């Protein structure tokens, strides 16, 4: 009888323990949403920098000397960079719309179909509307370290006054410049020499010309007709197929999502993966869906920041002019310095922090990433290897760095007295050397490059270019 009672008690205990374990597992699953990783990390211009570009160790002075010219000794004398702000939080409007989408999905789906999405809770603070994310701070700080290392000898003995930092009025560009400066100064200065009082110059005409150019705002920015290809693709069969696959995965029968909200789910997947390493929103997207939605973004950015409308890139001429005037001043200062004087008094590094709408038009006015066939709603398959791919060329912290080199015959490289030097230019986009359009080699005579763009440099009449005109469909 006692043995029977012990067996019964053990059975009851085991049952209670089992029920407790089941409850704990249920509780954990209900409190902690299931998350899913993704294999494709291409989110058009919302892609974090290190997802698409290698950010490993770099060599000291690897950009300082140029070995491309035989018989010539070439050292960097000036660098000018245009840098997009780092990874940011989503905009408040997107966050609120995503909360609304989630509410409708929860009302339409069963809890056990996708617990990750069903139990999803917004983790983005409402007061961080497009603010720089900690990942963006890291991107910029590390970028500052790498550029300072690659041009160490150019920068190491210079005072803060020998550098120029330009930002837009947006706080995320100011914070990006500050993070960049922290990494930059930690490489070229000792801890005692680092100046905590970092000054930057707000310049909207250089960094946010797209807000000041009336013709662009009127004919592109606020003109729905200008975005015809984007809306055609958004409302087309491929996005509809993505939506159908999402409905199937979530067991939804009613048509409750607009096409633009499919893009919002895609962006949520990217934002959350960047901030929290993974996101349940990714679980409803296949790699093919990601490619389709990435292409949608590229159509948008080719219109907004690329070649589709001439005014988009024409309006960036003040920025291009500023870059080349900096080179001109450097050369004049070097050439006018007396033989017994120390060369100095000019900016050795200019770093301008803007937006995708700053960097994209700069690419376009230079002629970079120009596809021979325009990116359109009906040719995605043909554009599989497109050059204008925002995930690669316009991610967060995208950067274009021009480096000006002074070159003298090798036998004179140890002498201060050189009658005449030649100046060459190299361009690095996202830290990789890129051939400047029109140049035969990766390096190019500065005078030739300047002459090629002289129309935009010397005859940049921003007011005339941006004079308001009636909207025109240029498609």
TrEMBL record:
- Enzyme Commission numbers on file: 3.1.3.62, 3.1.3.80
Keyword flag Transcription: no
Q: Which of UniProt's keywords are assigned here?
A: Cell membrane, Disulfide bond, Glycoprotein, Hydrolase, Membrane, Signal
Domain of life assignment: Eukaryota
Provide the Gene Ontology terms for cellular component: plasma membrane
Q: A Gene Ontology MF term for this entry?
A: inositol phosphate phosphatase activity
Q: Which PANTHER family match?
A: MULTIPLE INOSITOL POLYPHOSPHATE PHOSPHATASE 1, MULTIPLE INOSITOL POLYPHOSPHATE PHOSPHATASE-RELATED
Identification of the protein by name: Multiple inositol polyphosphate phosphatase 1
- Organism lineage: Eukaryota, Metazoa, Spiralia, Lophotrochozoa, Mollusca
